[in-house]
Amino acid sequence: MKWLFLPIRRTWSIARKEFVHVLMDPGALFLTIFAPAVVLTLLAYIFTFDIDESNIAVVDMDQTPTSAEYIRTLTSDGYLHIVGYPRNYDEAVALLDSDRADAALIIPPGFGETLSAGGYAPVHNVVDGIDAPAARQVMNAVQQRTQIFAARMGLAAPPPIEVRTRVWFNENMTSQHSMVPGLMALVLILPAMAVALGITREKESGTLETLVTTPVLSSDVLVGKVAVYLTLGLVSALISLAVAIFWFGVPFRGSLLAWIVATAAYLMACMAFSLVVASFARSQQTAMVIILLVLFMPGFLMSGLSDPVSRDAAASWIFSNLLPTTHYITLSRGIALKGLSLLALWRDSAALAIMGLLGLVLAIMMFRKKIA
Fold this sequence. Notes:
Elements: H1 2-24, H2 26-46, E1 54-60, H3 65-74, E2 80-84, H4 89-97, E3 103-107, H5 111-116, E4 124-127, H6 132-152, H7 175-187, H8 189-205, H9 207-212, H10 218-247, H11 256-280, H12 284-301, H13 314-321, H14 324-338, H15 346-371
Parallel strand pairs: 1-2, 1-3
Antiparallel strand pairs: 3-4
């Protein structure tokens, strides 16, 4: 039975050595455990699309109780904040140019009289379009509050069909609640990158070649290293999840165990790719650049993080589904926000499992060939 436990002992020996090395190396320890939570926090604030208020300037050329009531309706809930009452169009544009106002609302003379007579009273909304998302939000806000004012004044007939909207899973439509679970797919690439950096560092120093002269097999080396970084990566993932829940208030409705299993599969898929890169990369810089270009950047742009994966271009859709980030974003959001099980998300779960298994086998084969 000794032959059965011998590979386990060799793998355990490699894992113990690698674990001690990571603990003794502040850079590797930070990259593996703490960097994902730090980067997640930074990215979550950078990619927040929620706007709490918009600043507007109001040019009231009518100066009637009707125009005053219209202005009160616009600002009743506090979202639209008036930063000034310029006297004319040029002064309003000056506020836009100085970035003090996001939009300038111009109420024409005769506004109240025209409405009282049942006529059409145009209001001009001049919007700063430099920040497109903010511009769309202030345009929608003015439009919605204008409709409310018209309804109060009895100027708008009720529509024959009433649409009652109910938002599920992200009731307040908070962008951070959607973005943070997706951003975790990007930040968890860092522990996977640490695997490649560790192996290429040993190649640079020559310790990997020394290890080859021992009875340890290439599979023992790779499995031992992956076991350490996978464990530390899960610790890092749990820290990042705590930041998401307790700092950003992201709801977690699913099973923690299911999320851990999905995260382990994702880390395994990314680490398998890192092992493949480490098998031919000659330096840490080369390995890091390849991982950033092949995993991080496409994962940011083509994984459905901010926009759904397009099915219009077949090549783009196929490439997106070859990225582990695409599947993990679906799993992370589905488990955390929707409370779905791994069975309900079996396609993405199976994709990550297959990527991890095939990647590990390929890496072992490439290392054996390299050693030979």
